Amino acid sequence: MPLFEATNITKQFGTVTALDNVSISVPGKCIYGLLGPNGAGKTTLLRIINQITGPDSGSLFLNGKKLTPEDVRMIGYLPEERGLYKKMKVGEQALYFAQLKGLSKTEAMRRLKYWFKKLDIVDWWGKKVEELSKGMQQKVQFITTVLHEPSLIIFDEPFTGFDPVNVNTIKNEILFLREKGATIIFSTHNMSSVEELCDNITLINKAKTILEGGVSDIRNKWAANEYDLVFSGNIAIPENGQFKILSRQFENEKTTIRLKTPGRVVANDILRDVIDKGTILSFNPALPSMNEIFIRVVQSRNYETDQTSKD
Amino acid sequence: MNKTAIIIKREYLTRVRKKSFIIMTILAPLIIASFVILVPLIMLSGDKDYKKIAIVEDHTAIFKNIIPDTKNEKFIYLEGANINDLIDTFEEAGYFGVLYLSPEALNNPILYSKKQPDIGLLDHISGSMKKEIEKQKLLTYNIQNLDSILTQIRTNVSVSTKLVDERGKTTETSTGISMALAYIGGLLMYMLVFIFGSQVMRGVIEEKTSRVVEVIVSSVKPSELMMGKIIGIALVGLTQFLIWVFLTIGAVAVVKSTVLKKSDITDITQTVTQDVMSANQPAMASAQTREISSQAEEFAKIFDSAMNQNWPLIILSFIFYFVTGYLLYAAIFAAIGSAVDNETETQQFMLPVTIPIILALLVAMGTMQNPESSVAFWFSIIPLTSPIVMVARIPFGVPAWQIILSMALMVITFIAFVWMAAKVYRTGILMYGKKTSWKELWKWLRYSG
After folding, report:
1. Helix, strand, or coil here: A77?
2. Is the CB of residue B10 less than 8 Å away from at least one CB of chain A?
């Protein structure tokens, strides 16, 4: 049974449809990515899950039961825009939110000390939020979101405003939270983080779901019989009936050749043809990155809808 | 701890600890006090450099030394000067103007000057001349001892007011004090309701635009958040008001013990008596001392009648009307804040809210002329205006039933408004990017649940 489920969610703002019959099913202890171009409806879906707005139609289930207003206490939510009081000091503010979440003052202090140390922001305790950079604020907000140890955590664009070092820190913390048993839904444009973190994804474009499933399944499915063959030294090989050469690159004393086979072939057959040409360093099926899949799916969809609207 | 209490605590502490709050709380009474003290001082002291005014009379010399000098003006009688010459030269000679008196038109003197003279100067001239002319006319009747008769008949009248209560006990009051209290009370109420009401609005907008509210509504109900904010800010207002009351009481005590020592007054009176008895001192000095003593007595009298006001009623009703009036308007302000995306958008909603407050202030100012008028009565009963108008009426004495009726209506209304505001707030606070209209607000108000 999935931990969280949203079925046939539709939401309209005036004449604009923000979500059109979107369903997601989030298994427990998984990291679920919500992808899509700007304005696709990701944030709207997250706000509906968080019961900030209600859907026009469709239902939400948590642990198989209909989501109630009380369930919202089980959910941690990090909005895309910074939800912090600018004039308030970091420590006081974190304590305030923790107390509103129902933690006692002593318990909140204990957990805050732990998290502040962990994210290396102990020195900011007495600073005002407005003195902090966007990334620093994001860290504070991250802590206030997870402090009460909710079973479902929702991050809206958690990596915006972070430098690569901190992106990494937050990625590790998200993995750590899953290890501790939390289920995480996050929306993002950062495709490399999707490959690293997500177990499952849903891709939304123009209010509709256009792709969903496990990340590795999707990548395998989109793998278009392409392989990367790497030789040591500058090597050239001819095409033959088994494969075509899509590209060839010589870099750092290595030659990388992308091959495309007409149908499913056994790797051994290809290797047999090229085994004498030079020192083979590696041979891998070329899985498309999520970035490529994202762009291809979104563009082909947009093309299709353009065609239908022309007809 | 209860969640609303946590919110109240935050709203209260963050505001009270602000430097601007501490400065305002201490500075505001000082500013008001210094206005009260400085403005009359400035008006009394006037300019250090006085104006010289030449007096020229045609042929006669009736008005020599008749117009006395004042603080700002010196009158110099130029005997035998020619007016036509002076008109061209008075400015170079250092005169502000020339007063020309001709025997043909004594009641119509002419003041030549380069700049427009002020009313005070004209009054002074005409008053002095009028007195002299009247005296001259009286002299023609050949009355004996005219001077002493004139001194004897000179009288000053001041009406004292005493309020009679049901038991027939009278208290000395002062209409001036009541008016001052009405003025200060009405204005203060207006300011407090506006300042703290718009603080609520700004707080709501801040939470909405920073998305803090999206984080908070996952732990508390929107209505709890709204009430927490309103009550927290109300406590800030009350704190400020009570500090002002205590500061005032302290200041009054200081003034009373230093300036108004009873012994001082008796001292002066004694000296005066001694002076008169011994008659050694010049009469001039004795008259001056008497004047000082009567001024001090006057001050003591005003002070006493101020103390005779029903202070507990005034302060308690002020607090009641502040709390309920503030709650009423703060609820409206909170609803407005929730319905907009930024402060500039508030204007279309602010106007209808501002009208009753401004109207109330105008009526309150009018109340001081006639506290029993039917306009004053109705505006002190109608809840939207009653906080300001009733506070202005109370120093003049208001029948108990009117106060009770007004208070009861106030309580009912503020509960209704808070309830309606909570409904609008709940919807508005999570709504973005859409310009809200009155129609929209009405729709939110009717949402069930």
Report:
1. strand
2. yes
Our measurement of the distance from residue A267's CA atom to the centroid of its chain's CA atoms, rounded to an integer in Å, reads: 32
Of B143, B165, B186, which marks where a domain is finished? B143
Q: Which residues pair with A257 in a beta bridge?
A: A229, A248
B266 and B401 housed in the same domain: yes
Choose the closest CB to B212 out of A47, A53, A85: A85
What domain range is A269 assigned to?
Answer: 224-285
Shared domain check, B394 and B285: yes
Interface contact A96-B6, CB threshold 8 A: yes
B388-419 tens-digit pLDDT? 889 888 888 888 899 999 999 999 999 999 99
- Residue range A72-92: average pLDDT? 86
| Amino acid A116: pLDDT | 93
Query: What is the nearest CA distance from B29 to chain A, expressed in angstroms?
Result: 27
Summarised one tens digit per residue, pLDDT across range B186-245 is 888 888 888 899 899 999 998 888 888 888 887 888 888 999 999 999 999 889 888 888
Crossing angle between the packed helical segments B347-367 and B386-393, to the nearest 10 degrees: 20
Pair of tokens at residue B119: 């009313």
Q: How far is A297 from chain B (nearest CA, A)?
A: 30
- Please tell me whether the interface predicted TM-score (ipTM) of this complex is above 0.90: no
Domain count, chain A: 2
Using pLDDT thresholds of 50, 70 and 90, give the confidence band for residue B275: very low
Residue closest to B300 by CA, chosen among B340, B357, B260: B260
Q: Are residues A9 and A97 in the same domain?
A: yes
B218 to chain A, any CB pair closer than 8 A? The answer is yes
Q: Which of A44, A49, A100, A130 to mutate to test the interface with B (most CBs of B within 10 A)?
A: A100
pLDDT in tens, A160-211: 888 888 889 999 999 999 999 999 999 988 787 888 889 999 988 888 888 8
Half-sphere exposure for B13 (CA within 13 Å, toward CB): 11
Nearest CB neighbour to A86, from listed B210, B213, B214: B210
Exposure class string for A207-229: b at 16+ Cβ within 10 A, else e: bbbbbbeebeebbeebeeebbbb
Same domain, A202 and A103: yes
**Residue B359 structural domain:** 175-449
Statement to judge: residues B104 and B187 lie in one domain: no
Whether B258 has a pLDDT exceeding 60, the answer reads yes
Would the pLDDT of B327 be above 60? yes
The reply to whether B434 touches chain A by the CB within 8 Å rule is yes
Q: Is A77 on the interface with B (CB under 8 A)?
A: yes
Same domain, B67 and B187: no
List the structure tokens of B89. Answer: 């030269």
What distances in angstroms separate CA A97 from CA A108, A148, B212, B317, one per listed residue? 9, 10, 10, 37
